[in-house]
Write a structure and sequence with these properties.
By secondary structure, the protein is of the alpha/beta class. It is built from four helices and five strands; from the N terminus they run H-H-E-E-E-H-E-H-E. The protein has a five-stranded mixed sheet with strand order 1-2-3-4-5.
Length: about 140
């Protein structure tokens, strides 16, 4: 992953954790958290001047869409992002199915051991960022 992209990941991690904390506790469930984070990052990528596409389904992939892709002029995909509880094989397969400079999976699982074990599926060109905004999230 490029150096400037790495700086964005660090900033996005902090901002996504803050966005997660802002969800009122009675409304925090896995689907709501993932969708809220997806919407938040959609806005951040738009601010950087990219065309952003949500729920992109790569060709020949039927398992899982990419939550967000950021496209530069000429239709080059610069960022591809998935949100998941743990790193899943389906997310890795989807991210691996096309060329992209920066691929990342943000995980939200509460059991750190399970998240670490799931990293087994990662490929060298896919970054992983674990979001953990609370000591006890729910």
């Amino acid at each position: 992953m490029q150096d400037d992209a790495f700086q964005y990941l660090e900033r996005w991690k902090r901002e996504l954790e803050e966005a997660w904390r802002e969800i009122p506790k009675p409304f925090r469930n896995e689907r709501t958290v993932h969708r809220t984070l997806q919407c938040f990052l959609f806005d951040r990528l738009k601010e950087l001047g990219y065309r952003v596409v949500a729920d992109y389904m790569p060709p020949r992939i039927m398992d899982r869409p990419i939550d967000l892709i950021a496209v530069k002029e000429g239709h080059e995909i610069l960022y591809a992002v998935c949100f998941d509880t743990v790193v899943t094989l389906a997310a890795v397969k989807s991210l691996s199915s096309f060329e992209c400079a920066n691929k990342v999976i943000f995980t939200t699982g509460h059991l750190e051991k399970k998240v670490k074990e799931s990293r087994f599926f990662l490929k060298p060109d896919i970054e992983h960022v674990h979001l953990q905004p609370f000591e006890k999230p729910f």
